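Readers of this paper often ask what the protein records in our data store actually look like. Such a record has a labelled line for the sequence and another for the backbone structure tokens. The tokens are whole numbers drawn from a learned vocabulary of local backbone shapes. We quote a single record here, exactly as it is kept in our systems:
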Amino acid sequence: MKATILLLVTLALSVPAHAQDTEDLTPSGDPAPIRAVKLIQAGGGATQLERVFFGQVAARETVDLSFEVGGRLIMFDAQEGQFLEEGIQIAAMDLAPFERAVERATLQLAQANRDLTRAQTLVQSNAASATQAENAETARDLAAVALREATDALEDATLRAPFRALVASRLTPNFANVSPGQPIVRLHDMSEVRVEIDVPERLFQSLSDVTGISFVGTSPLFEGEVPLTLREFNAETQSIGQSYRVTLALPSTQVPTAIIPGASMTVTARLRNSDATAITLPPSAVTMTGDSAQVMVYTPNADAENGTVGLVPVDVASANGAQITVTGLGSDQWIVGAGIQMLRDGETVRPFTGMSVE
């Protein structure tokens, strides 16, 4: 009787052990080889996310210059595509009518001064009233204003570049009669060369602090990367694509003479994570269990040839939808990079070191 009970207990204990062994056997009954897994080291320090954008070179401003006075255009020395330094004369009207207006205003002011002197003398001799002297003084002041206006009109009859400019297009032919405010020439302000990129709405709104972003540009016009400085962004989305227009500036010391608005440039934005414990992992390295995220951490055995894997909960975030930022891991830990859905918690594995041919 005792021998029968002992036999039953022995069989009961051997069943689960045998079932566990079959998990590591192939269908033919041979021992299954140890799985090879790709490992990623958690590393240390802050992570850096990158996004690449298509950029387009743009001028600081584009303006249409015009005269403040009307007249006949007799000089228009600005060729399309030409660079102009600040203060260079671009166009001029026939100055003769404006010079005559200045002479006329000068004579009228001199006459007004004589009339004022005569009126003041008559007032002192009681031959005229004080009102007449005041009227003469007002006439003198009006003549002085007319002279200033005539002088300003003479200066406005010449058009000069208000900044270092690139002539975009000529809008009026030479020797034409122009009116005040009529566009004469379109200029690009090249005192600062800028680059414009369109940032998607989802990515733009996920960036709470733009001070942690650095921008660099690459182009056949430059040797290597060129640092870019954030200048401004439109506070409204584009009509197509739901994107925000971001404007960057090129360093003034690195602007080539051949660069013109409209040229293309590749812009790379790098966002440095402020959390020094965060690392970037591919989505294949993270698994979701309910509402929590987990990764498989590899722990090497004493022989360092094999090891075991175990699930560890982590906190995850994603700034661009393609890479996952993970916190909650040590800097010396190794993570399974892919295929974690095929592994069991506590399973023995070996690091994947590449394909070998025997």
Q: What stands out?
A: The longest helix spans residues 96-124. The domain at 50-61+192-272 is CATH 2.40.30.170 (Elongation Factor Tu (Ef-tu); domain 3).
